[in-house]
Every structure is written in C-alpha cells, then in structure tokens.
Amino acid sequence: xxxxxxxxxxxxxxxxxxxxxxxxxxxxxxxxxxxxxxxxxxxxxxxxxxxxxxxxxxxxxxxxxxxxxxxxxxxxxxxxxxxxxxxxxxxxxxxxxxxxxxx
Length: 103
Fold this sequence. Notes:
Structural class: mainly alpha
Strand content: under 5%
Number of domains: 2
C-alpha cells in the first residue's frame, strides 16, 4: 500500500511557507501529508505515534536559499543576515531533540 501512495498515481500538492498551514489541513481534513519528520515533531502539534514511514524516494531537500544581487554580497547588512540565519539554524539543529529519528 505504501508503494501505491508514493507511486505515479498519488495526488500531488506542494506547499510553500509555514508548516502551520499544512498542520491545519491535517487537523481539519482527512489528508495524508508527507512532511520532514523532525520539523513536524518540533511544532509540538504532531506526536511520534502519528507518523508512518513511507517507502520510496526521499522527499525534496528543505534548504534555505538567500538570493541577492552579486554586488550586494559583501555589504555589512547582507553579511549580518547570513550570519544570523546560519547561527540560528545551526543552534536549532544542535539543541532540538531528534525524537529518536535516524538523522
């Protein structure tokens, strides 16, 4: 059954922005959503027992991209924003629980 869910006939919908929107859909509908497990568990709105493992290819990467014009690359405010985001994400990764997931 899991192979059928991940197969070519599966419904596809992509969300951008807040994971809270997707969690609201999960709470108010009968949808099945493929989310990054650790991120979903970090919200406190999803319990480990609600997760199922889906066979197949891993989902898309969840990278953060900062886009700017090349000539602004070394401006102090741009450098500061990159540093703040990098420090925040690194600290979050280091301090947030792994919930027993194999990361």
